[in-house]
Design a protein that fits this description.
mainly alpha, transmembrane, 259 residues, membrane, globular
Length: 259
């Protein structure tokens, strides 16, 4: 790889680390809230099952999507899905004003195994979010010529795999930091889902440029103008989210101990 290609791959990996951090913190916080009503020993077991499920579902999603990623229908569904979850989360947070964490914690009637089932369902949703976002960021990187894995260039697969592993490491060891960061600057969560939606737009552009669909030319999806537009908007979302996030008081009383 030449230095330019390494820099481009490194930049995408940095974006993935930030995005995976926010998604992993959300995942960890949801799991912690779902299991907090259980006795301590059962809580630890449920958390263990939750982490094991997160590993299995993320790697399973990666290998399945790697074989399907070049099918334009899969790309289109992925784009719609990413846009859908972004709109859903933003509307819930700013329009419907949900009490998601409270509602999960108030479910006192859920026994151990029902709680585990709910945790695993949450893991599946977050695994799909994470891998689809990583795929959408990686597939338009220049190909490296490394051996393909599934339908992916070896370099693309490596970036997606690294992003998935980093997300799991963050969820296991650094989720507390990201949860505290989200607590201090809640606007970052909104910015993260705007980024997810924008990544969905990118995957949609990629789908419309597929030779079998050809709504847009292949040159448009891989051309410099679109790449500059995509990264400029993504950077603008991140910077705006950071500076518009107001820090909350430190005595907010939110859950700090996660996984």
């Amino acid at each position: 790889m030449d230095i330019g290609l390494l820099l481009e791959y490194g930049w995408v990996l940095l974006i993935l680390i930030g995005l995976e951090g926010i998604l992993a913190a959300d995942n960890a916080l949801v799991i912690a809230t779902m299991v907090k009503h259980l006795p301590e020993k059962q809580r630890k077991k449920a958390l263990f099952y939750g982490l094991a499920g997160a590993f299995l579902f993320r790697f399973g999603s990666l290998f399945i999507i790697s074989y399907l990623v070049h099918i334009w229908q899969v790309q289109a569904v992925g784009a719609i899905y990413l846009l859908g979850i972004a709109i859903y989360h933003i509307l819930k947070k700013h329009v419907l004003q949900p009490k998601l964490m409270k509602a999960a914690g108030e479910d006192k009637g859920s026994g151990f195994w029902m709680t585990v089932v709910k945790v695993e369902l949450a893991d599946i949703a977050f695994a799909i979010d994470s891998i689809l976002a990583a795929v959408a960021l990686a597939v338009m990187l220049p190909e490296t010529g490394l051996p393909t894995i599934g339908g992916l260039d070896g370099g693309h697969f490596a970036v997606i795999l690294a992003g998935g592993i980093i997300g799991l490491v963050i969820m296991r060891f650094a989720a507390g930091f990201f949860v505290e960061l989200l607590d201090k600057r809640p606007g970052l969560e909104t910015a993260a889902f705007f980024i997810v939606g924008w990544v969905g737009v990118k995957l949609g552009i990629y789908a419309m440029s597929h030779p079998e669909l050809a709504i847009l030319s292949d040159g448009f999806a891989k051309g410099a103008p679109w790449k500059i537009t995509f990264w400029s908007v993504l950077l603008l979302i991140g910077v705006t989210g950071w500076f518009l996030s107001k820090e909350k008081p430190k005595d907010s009383g939110e859950i700090k101990q996660v996984v």
